[in-house]
TrEMBL record:
GO terms for molecular function: identical protein binding; pyridoxal phosphate binding; transaminase activity. It comes from the Bacteria. PROSITE patterns: AA_TRANSFER_CLASS_3. Its cofactor is pyridoxal 5'-phosphate. This is Aspartate aminotransferase family protein. Belongs to the class-III pyridoxal-phosphate-dependent aminotransferase family.
């Protein structure tokens, strides 16, 4: 049987990884500034993370739902404390798409409305709001016809209000910082006015922090740079440092009831072991602080490159915008300099999403490579 060929792959076969580095089957070492679509938060094969997962698999392994799992409670408590959302409730699932799908469902149940507003170049996984960061019209079509999604330009609050006034919108979904699209971000004024407008028109505000969450932008959640409190926050990616896990943080104004949401794999013991380890490591190793320190250094070094037209994003979720497409440069970085980086829908943007454990000396390796390539 062949693989269903739906995305291109680089010709690299990783066999081992540690910290910010990945080894391939030819024993070449790569600096990982991409973390497999931003999932590596605490570094590859962190010893505490590995030990906890190993212990879990040797004892209870994958047992999933329908029985008491105190690890879910521990995870919710630690996540509440570290994120500042202690009074929200947590629903666990297994991916970013699933988290968003559940968030949209909750919004629809809660408001008895069905239309969704999302933003141009946003990306919310292959969900019924799987909209804008793709040019593929088959993905833009809503899965559930009743849950049509309207795409608006980012930062145009007048247009959002015009749609909300129609009183058929259950949710506005927005990323803290756009990932796949190319690192665009709502302004603080836009986020704050959006929060107010959603309250006024009884629409649920969903912050998709699947990529921008878990300390990546220098605060636990990217929306916390704008001093707002959304009704629902979705998480995944860095949450499990590579283990497939996702979650929905739900404000106390939503009432839980049996059967409202459900899952088979969500919150299983291994997923909890991975997620708890990540939170402990972020806290104990001050990784949010490290994110800010390294980000500052990285940006100050990048500012010396006149060929970088714009530095986008925050923390260690950074986009370098050039006035040319970066595809060839990414190939050079990976094959000639052994550095993983990411692309975006905006083909002129190079995405940098390293583990939050990264050090200045690793940044220097990238800076030197970029110097040689751009010269
Ligand atoms: N939301 C955002 C902001 C994402 O970047 C992604 C994936 O890239 C998703 C949702 C979907 O997550 P998953 O691929 O885990 O379904």
């Amino acid at each position: 049987m062949n693989l269903f060929n739906v995305y291109p792959l680089y010709d690299v076969t990783p066999v081992k990884a540690k910290g910010c580095f990945v080894w391939d089957d030819k024993d070449r070492i790569y600096l990982d500034l991409y973390g497999g679509h931003a999932v590596i938060s605490v570094g590859h094969s962190h010893p505490n993370y590995v030990a906890n997962l190993k212990h879990q698999i040797e004892t209870l392994g994958f047992y999933s739902n329908a029985v008491q799992n105190p690890m879910q409670v521990e995870l919710a408590e630690k996540l509440g404390k570290l994120s500042g959302y202690e009074n929200y409730e947590l629903f666990l699932c297994s991916s970013g798409a699933e988290a968003n799908e559940n968030a949209l469902k909750l919004a629809s149940f809660h408001t008895n409305k069905s239309r969704v507003i999302a933003f141009k170049n946003g990306f919310h996984g292959r969900t019924s709001a799987a909209v804008a960061a793709t040019d593929n019209p088959s993905i833009i079509a809503p899965i559930n016809k009743q849950q049509a999604t309207t795409i608006l330009p980012l930062n145009d609050i007048a247009l959002v209000k015009k749609e909300l006034k129609k009183d058929d919108v259950c949710a506005v979904i927005i990323e803290g910082i756009q990932g796949v699209g190319g690192l665009d971000e709502g302004t603080t004024t836009f986020f704050q006015e959006l929060e107010t407008a959603c309250k006024r028109y009884k629409t649920v505000l969903i912050l998709d922090e699947v990529q921008s969450g878990y300390g990546r932008t220098g605060k636990f959640f990217a929306h916390q740079h704008h001093n707002i409190k959304p009704d629902i926050i979705t998480i995944a990616k860095g949450m499990g440092n590579g283990f497939p896990v996702g979650g929905v943080l739900i404000s106390p104004k939503f009432d839980a009831s049996f059967g409202l949401l459900g899952t088979t794999f969500g919150g299983n013991h291994l997923a909890c072991a991975a997620s708890i380890s990540v939170l402990d490591i972020i806290k104990n190793e001050n990784l949010i602080e490290n994110t800010n320190t390294i980000s500052e250094y990285f940006i100050s070094e990048i500012e010396k490159f006149p060929k970088v037209k714009k530095i986008k994003g925050r923390g260690l979720m950074i986009g370098l915008e050039f006035d040319f497409e970066v595809g060839e440069m990414r190939k050079k970085l990976i094959y000639d300099y052994n550095i993983f980086t990411g692309g975006a829908k905006d083909k002129n943007v190079l995405r940098i999403l390293p583990p939050l454990t990264i050090k200045k000396e690793h940044i220097d390796v990238f800076i030197n490579a970029l110097k040689e390539i751009l010269d």
